[in-house]
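I am sending you the entry underneath: sequence plus fold tokens. Let me know what the token row says about the fold:
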Amino acid sequence: MQFEDALEKVVLVVAQGTGGCDAFSLYDVQDADDLTGLGPFDHLNVTPAAEGKWTDLLLPMHQRQLFRRVVEAKAGFVELDEYGAPELGPVTGSNDYFALSEATRAEYGLSEDHLAAISPPGTRHLRGLSLTKGDWEGLRQTGERVWLSSPRTRQARRAMARRRR
């Protein structure tokens, strides 16, 4: 695997030529070894939408068609901003330091009072529309980084920093 530690799916773009294009081909590979085995009909020819993202092209054809029908119909849907302003969850810039596993929490003797429970960085563990307490417990028990450093007082922040050095 080329991006062994990647938390997200990676799309590698290989382009040739100059100027724009009206369509392109997608090849689904898991690693560099798959590139040598590609055949002439292993690709998916696609024409991206005139605007917006094209990540739906990574869906299988039947799912992509359903997705596009729902998006175009907009039946029973409202814009998300009707409910509030969406915002990105915790972004630490250094998951290895700020996002902690249960083992790390125990190793440094960190109280849960100085931590916030989080959905681990990345999306590979998300399998549905919600992350339940039971899901979170399972992730905690399997060593995922489910805690975020969040000391409540200046004294607690200093103590935590000393323990992590």
The first strand starts at residue 24 and ends at 26.
